[in-house]
């Protein structure tokens, strides 16, 4: 091994190990890159001490070595390992004696130039060992004295060869070397690796990914073909909609509960007021999530093998997404009913709008038009499908007349339920139960985050039921819709205390049909959704309407982006509205050449730039609960912005009227439609601004409505069907609607027709509404009505007279310890009829709903949670006693 010296880099202070033959050369530090050159130290390293031999037991003391004069310097000699000396023959060792230590072999070592040579060996060479080359031979020394004791068995005899001398090994201090920065040019370069290695690895990985993707795609296709073949074999022509996941009609059976649910939710209406679907976590569709939760609590199968949950939601992101248009919805109801079995129990939920027209009730699909019965779904047709359905239990949940008080209603559909509609929705044939989310004169309310309060109540009750300990259900038990309706009703009545009332209503009748559960019967078949008619692509529709895109008249009235999914616009009809190649910049540079187009572009541009909301635009709500002098000053300031918008809209209306004579020369249908749309929009928005300014004036005249209860937290502008402005303003609004009607007629089957109808149905009237101060009820909204979702419901008996003696026994058993003896809490004493009637409101004879006693029992707040609960019979007894007059 080549000898090295140590040095310190003057740049980074790193320890350098330098081959001895490079000591006087320029070299580069690997760490900092500085070029350095060695120089000799001025001081002379100390002479090396002679190595000592390993003493043998009982050997004489080592003689003092003779000092030799320093030898002249000579170049280092490469180390040549000496031939190993013959090892002495091992002798048997006696027990209990230590083994002699092995003797190290000596090898000559090289030394750097100009360093003094080590002292010669102070011992005589042993027999059989050669002298080191180029080293002077040491003087002869007397041989060691013989051992003073007799040789023991197993020990070597006297004269045993001594250990070889240990040569001089330089210490790190002797090998230290100083360095200084060199002035020699830097010629050292780090060796570069193969620059093609990285790209080659990347290409190999990409190739592997592509090959793997092709392989797995082929595998997936083959697996899909295999599944289809299995489905075809299983169906045997009996059920074309069955799959290997749900082999309905194939003869395969399951232990799943015989229950099914069709869940339809519509929120993105074209012509009716939009509904609030709520927002789920991580972009999840909230209506779909609640549908799955209800299905879980009602034991409706949802796994792949036996899935009986069908969800149709226009806010869903499922791969089988279908818009809830009339054709898709009608086919879904028909197929759902026709594929159900005798032993099935079926549920149909519809969340959307419902209207009554000429003595008939209709459900509104996403493209339904106000007053156009041909675009609506008659509730009679739905009832007829379920009447013919084989299922033994049929439940309809109608979540209609929805209204979001925070968003308002700028389009039709969110009016309170009329007496006529209430009656028609509950006129179901025998054997069909109907639950509506509200009653006559009421709305079903929505919240921005949670969506439908009716659906939210079902979700809350499902969570509460999960925490209760109820007996395990069985597949032959019916869905206890009556008990769930009562629980949801109680929850909403508590939640909406001090707010508008929403009363859940259960109507219809239970089916007298009873079919035993049969797990050996083939599964009910899953049906396929109807295919949506195809038209031009969404890109073509959006491109055609790009110039007509404007901010909504109200903040929540934006143009829908799903027109192509709802309407199959004909490609041939759309060709007439293709762009003729004249750019907008060219039109703006030459208004004389294109007068109609210039006026149209200018009007639409003004609306886009000026029509804004919020602090710097149109305000739709005011948080001040009182109208003081400062509020009046703010109202005056808020009128300045709308006044400027009004002037600009008036100017654009006149400009559009001025170029009307040039319409005959305009040949492009696209620009003719745009002109009509721009004219109608300037008229509508001018009339709306006048209505808005009049509403702001009511603040200055103290004409705002007063809250019915409590204090007002603020006021908001809600849409109203009728305008309160002057006659000339209302006439201008009617003129705009006539223009939109003409536009719809002249451009049938195109996006321009839809655009015209959408804007024609928008309400321009405004009215102030009170934002009530949120009042928390005394009882927290955590009522837990009696719920046994899987218990077999009993027929509701007619109210019978119940004696107080029977009720008294129940009250003494469950209530008297806190409200009788030994204490009387909350001034309530239930020991006697007189003491009960003494507490005002505790019992209202003939009206259980107005009685605090029955309210506490229904809400499950009394008895306390740690006390024994009342049975269903005991609760019914107390209710019947109150309803019978509490005598």
Structure, described:
This protein has 887 residues and is an alpha/beta fold. Among the domains are: 200-253, no CATH class; 259-508, Rossmann fold; 538-772, no CATH class; 804-883, no CATH class. Helix content is 31%, strand content 11%. It contains 21 helices and 20 strands. The strands form five sheets. Strands 7-6-8-12-14-17 form a six-stranded mixed beta sheet, with helices on both faces. Strand 3 (26-28) and strand 4 (35-39) form a beta hairpin. Helix 2 packs parallel to helix 6. The model is unreliable at 43-68, 77-82, 103-112, 162-177, 180-192, 231-245, 247-252 and 775-799 (pLDDT under 50).
Distance between the termini: 117 Å
Topology-level CATH name of the domain at 259-508: Rossmann fold
In the CATH hierarchy, what is the class of the domain at 259-508? Alpha Beta
CATH architecture of the domain at 259-508: 3-Layer(aba) Sandwich
Could you give a short account of the major beta sheet? Answer: 6 strands, mixed
Q: What global shape is seen?
A: extended
- Please mark out the parts with pLDDT under 50 across 5 or more consecutive residues, or reply none: 43-68, 77-82, 103-112, 162-177, 180-192, 231-245, 247-252, 775-799
Number of strands: 20
Mean pLDDT: 76
Q: What radius of gyration results from the CA coordinates? A: 49 Å
Separate helix tally? 21
Strand order of the largest sheet: 7-6-8-12-14-17
Q: What percent strand?
A: 5-15%
State the helicity in percent bands.
25-40%
Region (Disordered): 43-164, 234-253
Domain Peptidase C14 caspase: 329-458
Protein name: Caspase family protein
Keywords: Membrane, Transmembrane, Transmembrane helix
């Amino acid at each position: 091994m080549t000898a090295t010296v140590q040095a310190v880099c003057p740049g980074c202070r790193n320890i350098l190990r330098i081959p001895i033959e490079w000591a006087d050369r320029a070299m580069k530090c690997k760490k900092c890159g500085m070029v350095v050159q060695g120089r000799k130290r001025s001081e002379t390293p100390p002479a090396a001490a002679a190595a000592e031999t390993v003493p043998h037991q009982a050997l004489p003391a080592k003689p003092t070595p003779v000092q030799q004069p320093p030898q002249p310097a000579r170049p280092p000699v490469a180390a040549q390992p000496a031939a190993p000396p013959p090892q002495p023959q091992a002798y048997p060792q006696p027990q209990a004696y230590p083994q002699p230590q092995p003797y190290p072999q000596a090898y000559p070592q090289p030394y750097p130039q100009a360093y003094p040579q080590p002292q010669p060996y102070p011992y005589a060479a042993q027999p059989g060992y050669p002298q080191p080359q180029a080293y002077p031979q040491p003087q002869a020394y007397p041989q060691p004295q013989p051992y003073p004791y007799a040789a023991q068995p197993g020990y070597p005899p006297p004269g045993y060869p001594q250990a070889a001398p240990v040569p001089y090994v330089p210490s790190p201090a002797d090998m230290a070397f100083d360095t200084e920065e060199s002035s020699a040019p830097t010629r050292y370069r780090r060796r570069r690796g193969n620059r093609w290695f990285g790209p080659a690895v990347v290409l190999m990985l990409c190739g592997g990914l592509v090959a793997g993707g092709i392989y797995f795609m082929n595998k997936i296709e083959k697996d899909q073909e295999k599944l289809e073949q299995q489905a075809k074999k299983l169906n045997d022509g009996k059920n074309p909609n069955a799959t290997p996941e749900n082999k309905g009609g194939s003869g395969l059976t399951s232990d799943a509960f015989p229950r099914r649910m069709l869940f339809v939710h519509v929120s993105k209406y074209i012509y009716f007021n939009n509904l609030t679907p709520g927002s789920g976590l991580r972009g999840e569709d909230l209506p779909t999530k609640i549908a799955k939760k209800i299905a879980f609590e009602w034991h409706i199968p949802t796994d792949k093998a036996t899935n009986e949950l069908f969800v149709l939601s226009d806010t869903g992101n499922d791969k089988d997404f279908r818009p809830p248009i009339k054709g898709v919805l009608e086919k879904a109801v028909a197929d759902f009913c026709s594929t159900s079995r005798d032993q099935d129990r079926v549920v149909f939920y519809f969340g959307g709008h419902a209207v009554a027209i000429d003595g008939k009730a209709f459900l509104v699909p996403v493209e339904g038009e106000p007053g156009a019965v041909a675009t609506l779904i008659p509730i009679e047709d739905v009832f007829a499908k379920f009447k013919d359905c084989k299922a033994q239990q049929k439940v309809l949940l109608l979540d209609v007349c929805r209204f979001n008080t925070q968003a308002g209603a700028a389009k039709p559909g969110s009016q309170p339920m009329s007496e006529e509609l209430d009656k028609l929705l509950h006129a179901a044939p025998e054997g069909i139960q109907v639950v509506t989310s509200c009653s006559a004169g009421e709305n079903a309310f929505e919240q921005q985050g949670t969506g439908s309060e009716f659906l939210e109540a079902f979700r809350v009750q499902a969570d509460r039921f999960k925490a209760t300990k109820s007996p395990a259900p069985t597949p032959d038990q019916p869905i206890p819709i009556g008990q769930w309706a009562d629980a949801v009703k109680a929850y909403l009545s508590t939640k909406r205390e001090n707010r508008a009332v929403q009363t859940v209503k259960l109507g219809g009748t239970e089916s007298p049909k009873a079919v035993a559960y049969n797990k050996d019967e083939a599964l009910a078949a899953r049906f396929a959704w109807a295919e949506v008619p195809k038209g031009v692509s969404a890109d073509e529709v959006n491109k055609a309407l790009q110039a007509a895109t404007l901010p909504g008249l109200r903040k929540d009235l934006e143009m829908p982006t799903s027109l192509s999914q709802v309407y199959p616009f004909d490609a041939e009809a759309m060709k007439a509205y293709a762009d003729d190649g004249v750019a907008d910049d060219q039109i703006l540079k030459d208004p004389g050449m294109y007068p109609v187009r210039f006026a149209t572009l200018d009007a639409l541009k003004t609306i886009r730039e000026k029509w804004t909301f919020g602090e710097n635009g149109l305000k739709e709500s005011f948080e001040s609960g009182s109208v003081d002098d400062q509020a009046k000053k703010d109202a005056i300031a808020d009128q300045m912005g709308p006044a400027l918008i009004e002037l600009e809209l008036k100017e654009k209306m006149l400009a559009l009227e001025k170029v009307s004579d040039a319409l005959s020369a305009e040949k492009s249908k696209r620009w003719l439609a745009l002109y009509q749309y721009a004219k109608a929009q300037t008229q509508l928005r001018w009339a709306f601004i006048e209505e808005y300014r009049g509403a702001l004036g009511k603040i200055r005249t103290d004409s705002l409505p007063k809250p019915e209860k409590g204090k007002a937290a603020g006021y908001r502008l809600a849409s109203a069907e009728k305008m309160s402005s002057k006659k000339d303003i209302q006439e201008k609004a009617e003129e705009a609607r006539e223009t939109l009607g003409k536009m719809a007629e002249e451009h049938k089957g195109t996006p321009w027709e839809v655009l015209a109808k959408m804007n024609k149905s928008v309400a321009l009237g405004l009215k102030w509404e009170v934002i009530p101060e949120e009042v928390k009820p005394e009882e927290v909204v955590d009522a837990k009505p009696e719920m046994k979702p899987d218990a077999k419901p009993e027929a509701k008996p007619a109210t019978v007279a119940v004696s107080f003696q029977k009720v008294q026994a129940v009250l003494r058993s469950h209530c008297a310890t806190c409200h009788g003896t030994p204490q009387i809490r909350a001034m309530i004493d239930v020991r006697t009829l007189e003491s009960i009637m003494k507490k005002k409101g505790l019992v209202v004879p003939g009206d259980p709903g107005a009685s605090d006693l029955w309210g506490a029992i229904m809400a499950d707040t009394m008895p306390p949670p740690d006390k024994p609960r009342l049975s269903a019979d005991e609760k019914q007894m107390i209710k019947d006693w109150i309803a019978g007059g509490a005598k």
